[in-house]
From TrEMBL:
This is Alpha-1,4 glucan phosphorylase. The lineage of its organism: Bacteria, Bacillati, Actinomycetota, Actinomycetes, Micromonosporales. The keyword Transferase applies. It comes from Paractinoplanes tereljensis. Keywords: Carbohydrate metabolism, Glycosyltransferase, Pyridoxal phosphate, Transferase. It catalyses: [(1->4)-alpha-D-glucosyl](n) + phosphate = [(1->4)-alpha-D-glucosyl](n-1) + alpha-D-glucose 1-phosphate. Allosteric enzyme that catalyzes the rate-limiting step in glycogen catabolism, the phosphorolytic cleavage of glycogen to produce glucose-1-phosphate, and plays a central role in maintaining cellular and organismal glucose homeostasis.
C-alpha cells in the first residue's frame, strides 16, 4: 500500500506540470516567497526540496520494509565521506531530471544557474572518503539495509588556492547557506563522555566517572539506490555543548563569554576535518573526534537494535559493523564497555559478541599511516577504554603465547601496546584482534598485508584475511559525469541496463572495430575536452589527479615533462605529439615536501607557457581545488591516466578505475588495482613500466643510491640539473635535492623505464584508430570495477547479509 495514501496524502506527481506545482508550493510554504521575488538561492533550495520530497516518500517505504523484515544490517563507520554534489544525482535517481528542468523553464528559471548553486559536502580527504560514498551508493542500489555513520564537520576539506604557484588553504564553510539535503534528528541525540576516572563498586562493577560531557546531534542525508525504491541514510553527528557545559553562575556574574567557554570547546569536536591523507596526525582532538563518532554511532545502533530485538545474543546476527580503516576502531572497546559496564554481560560473552559484530578494512601499507596513540594521552581522555584494551591484550597475548611458545619477539610485535621507544596503543592491531574479518582493498594489497604489514596476524588467523577489490559507482562516474558517452554506450548496447550491471559493457567489444562507432567515440572524448575548457581537443590529454604524496610520485611525471621540454628545446623543428598534462590534487597543509612539488609544477607550467618554441606541443595545467565535482569534469576528458606510484605503496587506487571506465588508457606500475586493471583490459591496452614490488623491495634492501641513476642517464641528469640550477623561476631545489640524495620512493630508478613507456604512448597516439580501439576496450572491460561488484563481494564473503526489497 502506498504509505501516503494510507495517510491520506496526495501522491507526488510524475509530470512536469505537477512538479511545477510542487515547486511553487515549496517556494511559498518552505521559503516564504514567490517566483516573482525569489532569489536564485530560493529557487535552488526549492528545487532541492521538491526533488528530496520524491525520495523522502521512498525513504518512508524503505524504513517500513526494513522494520518489518528485522534484517541483518550493515553499519558502515567512516570518519570521512566524499558524497559529491547531491542535486544531479537525486534528480536522476528520483526520475525527475527531465521534468524538473521543464518545470523550471516554465517558471522562467534558468536550470543551469539554479543547479549551479548545489554544493559538494567535502567531508573527506581522498580515496578512502570517496570509496565510502561509492559503497553506500551500491548498497542502496542492491537493496542492502545499511546506515553510514560519520561526522558532520562544519569545515570540510580546505579549499585549495594558489599564490605565486604555492598552495594556500582556505576554510570550506560548505553549509553556511544551510544544506537542503539534510534531515535533522535532534530527538536521537546522544551523550558522550570524555576524561575523568574509573571507580569500582562493591560488586566489582566498573564505573566511568567522566570529566566532560558532550552531546552528539545527528542529522541524516538520503542515500537512494539507482533503479530501486530503496533509500538508505548516512547519519552524521555534530557536537554540541551539554546543558552542564553552560555555566550559569558565570553568566549570572556577568561573565557571558566565559559562561559558554566549555560549550564552545565541546563544539570544536566536529568543527573541522583533519586534512591528512594516508598519514596520521596524532592530535588529541582527532582522537576525540574518533571517539565521538564511535560513541554516538554505537548508541544509535543499539537503539535501532532494540526497536525489534531484546536478546543480546541476537546482536551479531542482526548487526555487522564495518570499520573504514582504523579511524573508528575505538568502537571495539566502546562496545565492550557498553556490554560489560552498562548492560552487565560477562566479559567472555561480551567479547564473543563484539568479535562477531565487527569487520575491518585496511586501506594502506604505509607504516606512517598506521595509527597509534600515546598511552598517557589515551589514558587521560578515555581511562576506561584503556583498561579494557589492557584486558583484551592480556587474553590475546595468552593466545599468541599458546600458539607460538617461546616466541617473545612475536608477542612484542603483536601486542596492542607498543613499549619502545614510547608506550602507544596500536589501533591496527586492535582492529585485527577485535573483528571477524580483515580485508585489503586490491589483490596485491591483501597479499602484502598478509605477508608483510599484518603477517603475524595472518599466521595466527589465516582464515580471517580477505580481499575485496575496491570499486566505483558507475552512476556517479560515468552515467552522471559523462552523459554523452553514456548515451553512446546505451545506443551501442541497445539499452541502459549496463548502468546497474556494468559487466554488460563487454558488449562494446564488438563495436571497437566499427569505424563509425570509433569516430563517434572520439568525438565524445573531444567534446568532453572542450567542456573542460582545454584548448586543443586534438592534443593528448594526460592526467594525474589524486592527492599529492611522495609515494604517488607526481615528481616522476614532472621529470618526464621536463625531459619533453628539453627535447623540444634541443630540436625545435621536429614534429611532436601535442600533449596537455593536467595535474589536480591537494597536499596536506603540513606536508612540506608535497607542497614543494606543487609549487614546482606551477613554475614549470609557467616557464613552458612562456616559451613559444615549446608551448605549441606541451601545456601543463593545474586547476586548483580538486574535488569530486572537478574530478567528474576531468575524468571524461582524459586520454591517458597516470598511475605511477612506487610498486607496493598504493593500496588500490580508485581514480585508476574511473579513468579506465571512461576510456582513458593507463600508464602505470604494477601497484594496487593497476594490476587487476591490466589483467582485465589486456596488456596491449595498458602502458606498463617500472620495478615491481619484489624488485623495488630488493633494491631498497640492497642499498639504493639514486645518484647512480643520475650519473648514468644524461637525460635524467639534464632534467634534475635544471631543477637544481633553478631554471624554473628558482623554484624546486628542495625537490631536486631530495630526489638526488635520498629518493625514498625510487623515482630515479624508474625514470628511464617511465620515459620509454611515454615514448610508446606517443607512438600509439599517432595511430588514431588503434588508440580509439584501445580506449573502447578499456571501457568495455572495466565492468569488474563497479562498486556493485565490490558490495556483492562484501555481502557474500564478510557481511552475510541479504537484500530487502521495498514494496510499493
Ligand atoms: N587511502 Br590509510 C586514503 O585515501 N586515505 C587514507 O588515510 C588511507 C588510504 C586510500 C588509499 O591510499 C588508496 O590506495 C585506496 O584506493 C583508497 O584509500 C580506498 O581504499
Amino acid at each position: 500500500m502506498d504509505v501516503r495514501n494510507g495517510m491520506g496524502l496526495r501522491p507526488l506527481g510524475t509530470s512536469a506540470a505537477e512538479f511545477e506545482q510542487d515547486l511553487l508550493s515549496n517556494l511559498y510554504y518552505r521559503r516564504g516567497t514567490t517566483v516573482e521575488s525569489a532569489s536564485t538561492q530560493d529557487a535552488y533550495e526549492t528545487l532541492a526540496l521538491t526533488v528530496r520530497d520524491r525520495l523522502a516518500e521512498r525513504r518512508v517505504r524503505t524504513a517500513a520494509a526494513h522494520y518489518a523484515a528485522n534484517p541483518r544490517w550493515v553499519y558502515y563507520l567512516s570518519a570521512e565521506y566524499l558524497l559529491g554534489k547531491q542535486l544531479e544525482q537525486n534528480m536522476l535517481y528520483s526520475g525527475t531530471d527531465r521534468i524538473a528542468r521543464i518545470a523550471m523553464k516554465q517558471l522562467g528559471l534558468d536550470p543551469d544557474e539554479v543547479e549551479g548553486l548545489d554544493v559538494e559536502p567535502g567531508l573527506g580527504n581522498g580515496g578512502l572518503g570517496r570509496l565510502a560514498a561509492c559503497l553506500l551508493d551500491a548498497m542502496a542500489t542492491l537493496d542492502i539495509p545499511a546506515v553510514g555513520y560519520g561526522i558532520r564537520y562544519d569545515l570540510g576539506i580546505f579549499k585549495q588556492t594558489f599564490k605565486n604557484g604555492a598552495q594556500v588553504e582556505k576554510p570550506d564553510d560548505w553549509s553556511y547557506q544551510g544544506n537542503p539535503w539534510e534531515f535533522p534528528a535532534p530527538d536521537d541525540r546522544q551523550t558522550v563522555f570524555f576524561y575523568g576516572h574509573t571507580e569500582r563498586d562493591a560488586n566489582g562493577k566498573t564505573c566511568w566517572i567522566p570529566g566532560e560531557v558532550v552531546l552528539g546531534e545527528p542529522s541524516h542525508m538520503l542515500v537512494p539506490g539507482h533503479g530501486t525504491d530503496t533509500v538508505n541514510i548516512v547519519r552524521l553527528w555534530r557536537a554540541r555543548g551539554s546543558e552542564s557545559s553552560f555555566d550559569l553562575s558565570r553568566f549570572s556574574a556577568g561573565q557571558y563569554a566565559e559562561a559558554v567557554d566549555e560549550a564552545v570547546h565541546a563544539e570544536n569536536i566536529s568543527k573541522v576535518l583533519y586534512p591528512d591523507d594516508s598519514t596520521e596526525s596524532g592530535r588529541e582532538l582527532r582522537l576525540k573526534q574518533q571517539y565521538f563518532l564511535v560513541s554516538c554511532s554505537l548508541r544509535d545502533i543499539i537503539r535501532r537494535f532494540r526497536l525489534r530485538n531484546t536478546d543480546w545474543s541476537e546482536f551479531p546476527k542482526k548487526t555487522v559493523i564495518q570499520l573504514n580503516d582504523t579511524h573508528p576502531t575505538l568502537a571495539i572497546p566502546e562496545l565492550m564497555r557498553l556490554l560489560v559496564d552498562e548492560e552487565g554481560l560477562n566479559w567472555d560473552l561480551a567479547w564473543t559478541i563484539v568479535r562477531q559484530t565487527f569487520a575491518y578494512t585496511c586501506h594502506t601499507l604505509l607504516p606512517e599511516a598506521l595509527e597509534t596513540w600515546s598511552v598517557p594521552m589515551f589514558e587521560r581522555l578515555l581511562p576506561r577504554h584503556l583498561e579494557i584494551i589492557y584486558t583484551i591484550n592480556e587474553h590475546f597475548l595468552a593466545e599468541v603465547r599458546e600458539a607460538f611458545p617461546g616466541d617473545v619477539d612475536r608477542v612484542r610485535r603483536m601486542s596492542l601496546i607498543q613499549e619502545e621507544p614510547d608506550r602507544r596503543v596500536r589501533m591496527a592491531n586492535l582492529a585485527v584482534v577485535g573483528t571477524q574479518a580483515v580485508n585489503g582493498v586490491a589483490e596485491l594489497h591483501s597479499e602484502l598485508l598478509a605477508s608483510t604489514t599484518l603477517r603475524d596476524f595472518a599466521e595466527l588467523w589465516p582464515a580471517k584475511f580477505h580481499n575485496v577489490t575496491n570499486g566505483i559507482s558507475p552512476r556517479r562516474f560515468i552515467k552522471i559525469a559523462n552523459p554523452t558517452l553514456s548515451s553512446l554506450i546505451s545506443e551501442g548496447l541497445g539499452g541502459d541496463e549496463w548502468i546497474n550491471d556494468l559487466d554488460r559493457l563487454a558488449g562494446l567489444e564488438a563495436l571497437a572495430d566499427d569505424e563509425s562507432f570509433r569516430s563517434r567515440w572520439r568525438a565524445v572524448k573531444q567534446a568532453n575536452k572542450v567542456r573542460l575548457g582545454l584548448g586543443d581537443p586534438e592534443s593528448l590529454t594526460d592526467v594525474m589527479i589524486k592527492r599529492f604524496h611522495e609515494y604517488k610520485r607526481q615528481q616522476l611525471k614532472l621529470l618526464h615533462i621536463i625531459t619533453m621540454y628539453h627535447r623540444i628545446k634541443a630540436n625545435p623543428g621536429q614534429a611532436y605529439v601535442p600533449r596537455t598534462v593536467l595535474f589536480a590534487g591537494k597536499a596536506a597543509p603540513a606536508y612540506h615536501a608535497a607542497k614543494h612539488v606543487i609549487r614546482l609544477i606551477n613554475a614549470v607550467a609557467a616557464v613552458i607557457d612562456a616559451d613559444p618554441a615549446v608551448s605549441p606541443y606541451l601545456k601543463v595545467v593545474f586547476p586548483p581545488n580538486y574535488n569530486v565535482t572537478l574530478g567528474s569534469l576531468i575524468i571524461p576528458a582524459a586520454d591517458l591516466s597516470e598511475q605511477i606510484s612506487m610498486a607496493g605503496k598504493e593500496a588500490s587506487g580508485t581514480g585508476n578505475m574511473k579513468l579506465a571506465l571512461n576510456g582513458a588508457l593507463t600508464i602505470g606500475t604494477l601497484d594496487g588495482a593497476n594490476i587487476e586493471i591490466r589483467d582485465k583490459v589486456g596488456a596491449d591496452n595498458f602502458f606498463l613500466f617500472g620495478l615491481d614490488t619484489p624488485a623495488a623491495t630488493a633494491l631498497k634492501n640492497n642499498g639504493y643510491r639514486a645518484r647512480d641513476h643520475y650519473d648514468r642517464d644524461p637525460e635524467l641528469r639534464h632534467a634534475l640539473d635544471s631543477i637544481l640550477d633553478g631554471k624554473f623561476l628558482g623554484i624546486g631545489r628542495e625537490v631536486g635535492e631530495s630526489l638526488l640524495n635520498w629518493d625514498e620512493y625510487l623515482t630515479l630508478a624508474d625514470y628511464r623505464s617511465y620515459v620509454d613507456a611515454q615514448d610508446q604512448v606517443d607512438a600509439a597516439w599517432q595511430d588514431t584508430d588503434q588508440w580509439t580501439r584501445k580506449s573502447i576496450l578499456n571501457t568495455a572491460r572495466s565492468g569488474f570495477f563497479s562498486a556493485d561488484r565490490t558490495v556483492r563481494d562484501y555481502a557474500a564473503g564478510i557481511w552475510h547479509v541479504n537484500p530487502v526489497k521495498v514494496g510499493r
